Amino acid sequence: MAILKILQYPDEKLHTVAIPVAQVTDKIRALIDDMAETMYAAPGIGLAATQVDVHERVIVIDTSEARDELLVLINPEIIASSGISDFEEGCLSVPGIYGKVQRAELVTVKALNAQGEPFVLDADGLLAVCIQHEMDHLAGKVFVEYWSRLKQARTLARLKKKLRSTM
Ligand code: NI
Hints:
Blueprint: H1 26-41, E1 46-48, E2 58-61, E3 71-82, E4 88-89, E5 99-100, E6 106-112, E7 118-124, H2 125-138, H3 149-166
Antiparallel strand pairs: 1-2, 2-3, 3-6, 4-5, 6-7
């Protein structure tokens, strides 16, 4: 296992659209192990392959308190959604920046697990938000890009300032 480098916004590679996983192989399982280790070490509650510069449809999530319920979603598809929620979100690719995004409150997602077996999951609350946030990464979208141009410009300015002060 290895801790992978997480792309930092506004890296253009975060806008890459991931392709579906053709077959869940040992190589994909090794990627999942590395992504999980990277997410837990960060620490974060979700990570999409896009964020570690691998452009295939793989997500790892763990929203449990004990950090012992790893959820793997390969080729995820939202097959039903309802309601509206606006959680305050953050992202390992946009450190120190938090803000609200309007999303569905409940989602039903269909995906493959690490063994390549299909499953369907009903999610609500933080898990539903996290699934939608990570699926956006696979589509090349970062959560701050839901915000107004002005708020995005301010976010970029804050990130640049932070970068300078840590160099
Ligand atoms: Ni993110």
